[in-house]
Design brief:
Layout: H1 3-17, E1 23-28, H2 39-48, E2 51-56, H3 61-73, E3 78-82, H4 96-104, E4 109-118, H5 126-143, E5 147-152, H6 155-164, E6 172-174, H7 181-189, E7 193-196, H8 209-214, E8 223-225, H9 243-246, H10 251-260, H11 271-282, H12 286-301
Parallel strand pairs: 1-2, 2-3, 3-4, 4-5, 5-6, 6-7, 7-8
Helix pairs in contact: 3-4, 11-12
């Protein structure tokens, strides 16, 4: 075999080796009723796309119990969070904290959340949101489990609450980050990890997520990736997505996105497309982003 043929064979082998990224989706709402009929197929497709582990987000006590149940049906693949979302804070009762503690005490539960503050919708009164969030922060500190945080239009209040516990805080993950570069910097200074989703395909504001990535202000060691399924569909044809990013998307990743995902129902198998978008903005290879984000997820959530 000639040197040229050997090099071609090597390139081909390397291409096959990198055909699948090894990924961790740190936030997918698989308890959502949109997955009730075909969850096994959804998980199978995710694995085919390279998504080896999925953390099932919870937004209520009922959802937390269901996430725990799913994590036991798919051990080593699905993991649970236990938390009450700010939208659901109004449902908090005197028994809620103990019930949440009991759910979170199981080894399959790797995080407290999704909890936090959301002043955009105010489905729960802000004062109730703050009270419920504080109790969950204290629970995460008590149990030494990462805190999976939701924040929208509540940046200053969220920071103020976290500062109260700054000396005992566990790892902090900001789910589905959609804020500004300045806000991101404040969160990063607190040691937070930022979870990015398909939202990057539609945000090209002057100081938004695309600018955050393009400017190199987000280090790979503080980055996590998530689909937030069935939400946050990564639109590969979005007008707000630069052509060079669109052109960087591989045929394999797009095949999963276009065949199985829609605006109405995003799936974990869309994660490779998100990783490739992020990599293009960062001017890095998708393999580097996949490796770093998976390592970060394993470390933060204590996954095997």
């Amino acid at each position: 075999m000639s040197a040229a043929d050997k090099e071609a064979t090597c390139d081909s082998n390397m291409k096959r080796y990198f055909e699948n990224y090894i990924l961790v989706d740190v936030g997918a709402n698989l308890t959502n009723r949109k997955f009730s009929r075909d969850l096994e197929s959804v998980i199978s497709r995710a694995k085919d796309a390279g998504v080896q582990k999925i953390i099932v987000s919870s937004t209520s006590l009922k959802g937390s119990r269901e996430a725990l149940r799913l994590s036991r049906i798919y051990p080593g693949t699905l993991y649970a969070t236990a938390g009450v979302h700010p939208h659901e804070a109004k449902s908090w009762s005197d028994d809620s904290l103990n019930e949440l503690r009991n759910i979170a005490s199981n080894s399959e539960c790797v995080s407290i959340g999704e909890c936090g503050l959301d002043y955009n919708k105010n489905f729960s009164p802000p004062e109730v949101q703050r009270l419920v969030f504080k109790q969950q922060v204290e629970l995460a500190c008590e149990m030494h489990k990462p805190l999976f945080i939701h924040e929208r239009d509540a940046h200053e209040d969220l920071l103020a609450i976290l500062q109260e516990y700054k000396d005992i805080l566990p790892p902090l993950v900001l789910s589905s980050y959609s804020g500004s570069c300045i806000q991101a910097q404040k969160y990063l200074e607190m040691g937070m990890y930022l979870g990015l989703t398909g939202y990057i395909s539609k945000d090209n504001s002057e100081n938004g997520v695309q600018v955050l990535l393009e400017g190199g202000d987000l280090s790979l060691d503080r980055l996590l990736v998530q689909t937030d399924s069935p939400f946050m569909y990564p639109n590969a044809r979005a007008s707000k997505l630069p052509d060079r990013v669109k052109n960087s998307l591989t045929e394999r990743s797009l095949s999963f996105l276009q065949k199985y995902c829609t605006f109405q129902r995003n799936e974990p198998c869309a994660l490779p497309t998100i990783v490739e978008m992020i990599a293009a903005f960062l001017h890095k290879t998708p393999e580097d982003v996949a490796l770093s984000t998976s390592f970060n997820a394993l470390k933060v959530f204590g996954l095997s």
